[in-house]
Amino acid sequence: MENSLNTIQQLVANFKSNEAAYLASNYSESQVRQDFIDKFFTALGWDVTHTKQFNPYAQEVKIENRVTMPGTQRRADYAFSIAPNFDQIKFFVEAKKPSRSLANADDYFQTIRYAWNTKIPIAVLTDFEEFHILDCRYKPNIKTALERRIGEYRYTDYADKEIFAKIFHLFGREAVAAGSLEKYAAGLPKKGTKQVGGIQPVDDAFLEELDEYREILAKAFKKTNEALQGDELTEAVQRTIDRLVFIRFLEDKGIEDKQIISIEDPKTAWKSFVTICKRFEPKYNGLVFKSHRILDSGEFHSPDGAAFATICQKISDPSSPYDFNFIPISILGSIYERFLGKVVHATEKRVKVEEKPEVRKAGGVYYTPEYIVRYIVKETVGKLIEGKKPEQIALMAFADIACGSGSFLIEVYAQVLEYHLQYYMNHPESVGKDVLFERDGKKYLTLKKKKEILTNNVYGVDIDFQATEVTQLSLYLKMLENATMNDAHQFVLFRETILPDLRQNIICGNSLIGRDILEGDLFSSVDESKLKPMNYEDAFPIILKRGGFDAIVGNPPYVRPHNLEDNVKEYFWKHYRTFVKKSDLYCCFIEKAIKSVRLHGLVSYIVSDGWLRLDSFEELRIFMLSNCIIKELVELPEKVFAEATVKTGIFITQKNISEIKYNDINIVSFDEQGNKFVFVKSIKQQYFNDTYKNIFDTSLFGDIKKLKDKIVSNSLTLGSLLNIQFGLKTGDDTKFISNKSETKDHKPLLRGENVQRYSYKYVGEYVWYVPDKMKLHRKTARPGDKNRFEQTKILIKDTSTKLSGTIDYNNYYVKDVLVLTKKPNISLNLEFILGVMNSKMMRYYYETSFPTLHVQNDELSSLPFRSLELMNPIDKTIHDKIVKLVNQILESKQKLSAAKTDGEINRLDLLCASIDRKIDEAVYELYGLTEDEIKIVKGEN
User: Fold this and answer.
1) What is the spatial distance between Cα 743 and Cα 426, in angstroms, rounded to a whole number?
2) In this structure, what are the phi and psi dihedrals at residue 238, rounded to the nearest 5 degrees?
3) What secondary structure letter does DSSP report for 199?
4) Residues 621-675: pLDDT tens digits?
């Protein structure tokens, strides 16, 4: 920092010595940038003048030098990123000339608008004389823009070592690379609510706006077109909004002149809009402006002009917070993904916008975070095209067969475009006609080439027609991302349409149900129109003839079987071997994807990680182990989806059966601090052929595998020693559970939450118990045999990722608890078995092998228990030692629950900890663990 400070102090001295000249009105913005601002950020470690980063496509500092026409939008003066993620902007800097005051609403609003639309929390406004740090988390509003300043320095402050250190450790290149801005933004206060100017990201804000437009348009359309039903209104409103968004995009990108502002007059608003759309239809073609059977029919009556004009005015207002020159297409995708979760419902007199039933059941729409989308596509599509020539890539097909709004397909398209550009830059001899053009010293792919790549390489399927429409819209926007008015004019000049027809690429159909549903009586004609069956051979004949897709990626729907209609479940059970009771719909998508890629093709999905370990996904694991090389398993953080509780992971597989036995699976995790994916270890795929039910135990590696093999060797399974049964399941507690005293039909009850390690707490509840054999109208749900309760038994709570149990000597009935009772002729004491189960070693074995929310019967059954012969004095000694220690801890825990004073509680806590440690040591001895192996169990190795 010292060298940087010295440089800054010299800049300060230079400015001070000629301050009057620098503050004069004729000293321009370009001059202050060259004389001071460039040098300021260079001193902070940034390669502002590109003395090291020569490649214009791989520069951490992007500088905007374009001369712009009055009234047009432009980019921020500086955009800073960190290699190799040059498209992920960390912060913006907007420069002004020093003669004017920085503290003005227009400049603040402009700077905040750049950042907010890109979801960047912090931006800088500076003329070197002053340095203002702005909070850009709030929706831009020119009236409150001046309230967003969170830091302010004058140039003389820069020379102060302490003040400069604050700037250096926030905006210095190495600090930014280490996450300084994210940490700083996370620590900022969150003032107000979104209704009164509080924090609201651009995607949430624009989604609210689109929802508002949808409701206004739906009511306006219904008012003048009473015969329109819900599906028709949904589609007509969707297409209108798509056209408005697309036009606004064309305007903000400078591809078209401003159009919508001229149609604010309520009397002519709709007519003017229709005229514009008709004029754009032959020019852009594609789906957006294509004649629509409702909107563009002679029978459609114009909506209320005032309502439509209001929407036009809002979306085109120059002071609007939205700037489509900055909103990334991926963010638009996230907005639309949630927007598609609602439909218009119409009755004869009323219109209402409602969530789709499947969205309500799922608790909302979950949009895949961009960093995950990017990683999946890079590790599949990116790997497949690497080293290939454009003519080879032209014959490749990449798909998402549950594409939603198209987030994965946008990234597929983006990465294929980027590869082509880099290839042509590196191989200028292969650049043919209409491939590249140059602007502002940089080369770009022509619209013609981008159009060709889009139609050759990108494919999608979704059952929702609106989703396929939005996917096409998003891909069109991506294609036009760097286009100009001149680029568009070239197409018109040669009488070509700008946008491709994607109806053969993006298909509305059912990825999982084929046309064979018409052959039986399983589905009615109504079901057929709702289910939209599709044969891949009909939808993608050329791709299927080539052997299938080269890669399929995505985030398929997660739907449990009980949430599907009976006839749909029956179809899936018949057609998909991986779809079994208690599995998930995503099994079908995985199986279909693997069958639909060509040999050596790749499949990668983000799904719930339950498939790795749960019993109900055993068939899926077997299917994948038999048909694929599993290249990667990626462990993701707990909260990938903000509103969802399900834990997810990524898998990457290659369709290949010849090399499976030689394959090593890479285990990768996501480092949230470093915001990057990190290789952890490799595990041989064949290991999982030998695990219990082919569970993907990702802890298997080196010494850990040897340790687990040792624990299993010379052991019996717990299931061979004990009967393992579930306790009661009472769906409606108010019917079955009460505080009545014990009667013939009311039994004292323990719940899972009452059961702990070596103890339980009875809270006075009773369960109404009626056995199956009694034919009463109301029965206890899943009563089973009462004998499993009315004996001494081990209790294991079933809702826990940890193995926790105790012994019940008092014949309690139990709910959300597994009941373990001795099989006949088993001489081992229950106390001995409990001690081993509760030991650190067995907990380690269980929790690394079966990290699930619910303890499962079969998983417990598979636990390895060392075989003992009690006639052998050595075996009996260790057995009796553990029994004695367990009796001691059970007694101590009972006393602890009744203790009244802090002193007594402290004494008993220490005693229980000591006994617990002795039980652990006895179990280590029982299994013959070495010091190094004990360290693994304890997490010390």
Assistant:
1) 85
2) -60, -45
3) B
4) 999 999 999 999 999 987 777 666 678 999 999 999 888 888 999 999 998 877 7
